[in-house]
């Protein structure tokens, strides 16, 4: 879809392997796009040049950020305001609530409508939410649209003060053509996890569950793709539970390498939980990719996963921290490739009907267009 308006997309990271959903927005949203980045507040433009032009302004910004630890810094707010005005930006689309909260004032000053896309920790992480609460209040008041990625998050955003009539439920989508149906009828008893090794994805819970699986199915294997703070702890647990021959830690892989790995899998497994600090998933893209590929998903009753996986139809859901229950479901699929195929086909159909990227992008385009028309 093309559109005559100028859209500014603001994201925190220049690039991040796990943020494929952000790149989807950059690639497919309508409008003439400019992309800014640089942390919780954008400091670089689409040509990688600093938004703050003067040396004195830059020093002032760094002093206030690094030394005074301020969140509202006038010199950078004014720099963003000037950019939006100079480039005749018609709407701003922001990835993550914290970023949206910090750029709200600049959008107000430039009289440019704002759409904020929440993703997970920005709505659930206790310290973050407490820290940004006053700014969230201002952002919710000014924003034209607030995007949630699950029904659970819609309720959470309402609790935080977001007006119900501004909230849209639009989880990340999946290009089902890019993840076509795999033939898993002759697959080995191999299981796949892809994600960051962080508390909310609880990689150690998955390892504990897999110890029980191997006790029943000695030839079963688990492939864990990714990296993160809990990587070494997970590795140590694998050694402790004597699973070195059963679990492979691949580290970070390229998308095409993950696709190749998927071809040998029986199912996808992810034991997401609510972290001690409140952090929670949105709707994990890896779950959508696995389902689109025809891999049944074994996961937890957690956040958007409850919508992406239909228990007993496209995969299985267990309660958070129920490692025994997860192991039982993995054993069930290990023992029946026919059942895995059946669930996997249903999962792909669920993705086609309800999670197509094109449909998600169409909704976001509509929200952005409405913000300009108001």
Q: N-to-C SSE series?
A: EHEHHEHEHHEHEEHEHEHEHEHEHHH
Low-confidence stretches: none
- Give the tally of β-strands: 12
Largest sheet: 6 strands, parallel
Radius of gyration over C-alpha positions, nearest whole angstrom: 22 Å
Judging from the principal axes of the Cα atoms, what is the shape? elongated
Class by helix and strand content? alpha/beta
Spatial order of the strands in the main sheet?
2-1-3-4-5-6
As a percent range, the share of strand residues is 5-15%
Query: What is the overall number of helices?
Result: 15
Mean of residue pLDDT? 95
Distance between the termini: 21 Å
Helix content: 40-55%
What would you say this structure looks like, in words?
The chain is elongated, with a radius of gyration of 22 Å. The two termini are 21 Å apart. The strands form 2 sheets. It has a 6-stranded parallel beta sheet with strand order 2-1-3-4-5-6, sandwiched between helices. It is α/β, with parallel strands linked by helices and 374 residues long. It contains 15 helices and 12 strands. The model has no long low-confidence stretch (mean pLDDT 95). It has helices at residues 20-28, 55-67, 74-86, 97-110, 121-124, 126-142, 151-159, 203-216, 231-240, 255-262, 285-292, 305-308, 323-334, 337-354, 357-373, and strands at 6-10, 32-36, 91-95, 114-117, 145-148, 167-169, 190-194, 221-225, 247-251, 267-269, 297-300, 315-318. Helix 4 (97-110) runs parallel beside helix 6, helix 8 (203-216) packs parallel to helix 9 and helix 8 packs across helix 13 (323-334).
